Amino acid sequence: MQAVCVDVPGGPESLLLRSVSRPQPKDGEVLIKVHAAALNRADLLQRRGLYPPPPGESDIMGLEVAGTVDSLGPGVKMDWKPDDRIMALLRGGGYAEYVSVPEELLMSVPSNLTLSQAAAIPEAWLTAFQLLVKEGEVVLVHAGGSGVGTAAVQLVRLFGAVPVVTAGSEEKLKMAEKLGAAAGFNYREESFAKGGANVILDCIGGCNWEQNVSCLSVDGRWVLYGTMGGRAVEGDLLGKLLSKRGHLLSSLLRSRSLQVRKQNFALPFLPHFSAQSASLRPVIDSSFSLEDVAEAHRHMEANRNMGKIIINQNPQS
């Protein structure tokens, strides 16, 4: 099969498409014929050698895919059949024509979604879903135009809370507002440290810490799931956070155990994607072929995307 490999960590030019052995499904696994995979910031870090896969996992990038059932390994309990449309949460291996996945991390694709749309759901929406917000709370979502950001805005509204976003362009802010954001801040032009956020969903990290603490309400929760703006912090972060009784939480899906991922992958919001409800929708920015994966990485690194970037392996996905 064809897969994207990296021999030497580096820039997008280090991504190589080559022929590798097709994986064989182990006990309890399902082999997926991949139709579409979605990019994540973790892929960029892995390509640069900064975010290796967990021990024993595939060194091929790709954390979320959609496709069809190819074959079943021994011991599969669910009634999956060849050509069933499924999406999957991975620890790696998605940038390939086939990937083998524990059956607990599979979901059927709603009939009204394309496989490209479905590929944009598992990693991004599960990350956003961990917010666990309460009705009426104000939620500050950084990178409101990203895959996780566009998911979070919709989920916050679904929970009856109030989403506010930051983004780097007026175009991204307008898109977030169309999805339900109550307000937005262009971080290139204005401060967002105006107080009142019960929850912060943060993929930026270090460079924003002072504004984050300033805008966090007393007893607020700051959920960190990325460090795009750096990891180093200088100053009295702990003292200021303590004065507000703030809760600093961190979240990484990839390194979690299979048991934890199984428990969390029973996504209660999935019915909201169905044709009967359709109150949630994955936002797709652009699609690239597997051969053009380097261009897809460049597109994300330039922060040009609004929503998810998809790698399509089937033009009808």
TrEMBL record:
Name of the featured protein: Tumor protein p53 inducible protein 3
Enoyl reductase (ER) domain location: 10-311
Range of residues in the leader sequence: none
Keywords, in A-Z order: NADP, Oxidoreductase
Species in which this protein is naturally found: Amphiprion percula
Domain of life: Eukaryota
KW ATP-binding (keyword) present: no
InterPro entries referenced in this protein's UniProt entry, alphabetically: ADH-like_C (IPR013149), ADH-like_N (IPR013154), ER (IPR020843), GroES-like_sf (IPR011032), NAD(P)-bd_dom_sf (IPR036291), Quinone_OxRdtase_PIG3 (IPR014189)
GO molecular function, one term: quinone binding
CDD domains: p53_inducible_oxidoreductase
UniProt xrefs under SUPFAM superfamilies: GroES-like, NAD(P)-binding Rossmann-fold domains
Keyword Translocase: no
